[in-house]
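Need tokens for this chain, all 144 residues.
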Amino acid sequence: MGPLDSYLPYLLNRAGARIATAFSAEMRPLGATLQAWRVLAALRERDGRRMGGLAETTAIEVSTLTRLVDNMESEGLVARRRAPGDARAVTLHATAAGRRLTQRILPIAERYERVALAGFSAKEAEALKVALRRLYANMAALRP
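Here are the structure tokens for all 144 residues:
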């Protein structure tokens, strides 16, 4: 095991890239991308999110997210609406087509989680998730 194998950013990137590449390949025939799945999954969790909150939840930069949502809207997967009580704010909602696509992707995402966590006890899996959330939060200190 060399120095690279003990470098945390390398290990995280390598694991994430392997998952993302394989998952993206399975999304392609469904007409979806990994980023579109993040948006749909976030809207499944809580529909009617504002773009800023959605950017934070999905870890997609706002300008990239805006273009992505434009494309998803033209594909009929999401719809923008004025927020109740604040005509300046816009909320994003999954359409019926977006919810159907989410239901098709969900079992694939669940299988990826099972495969990724194979051999981990429930306690180890939860500890890993807690650690990754903390690591993500820690990295905010380096935000320019």
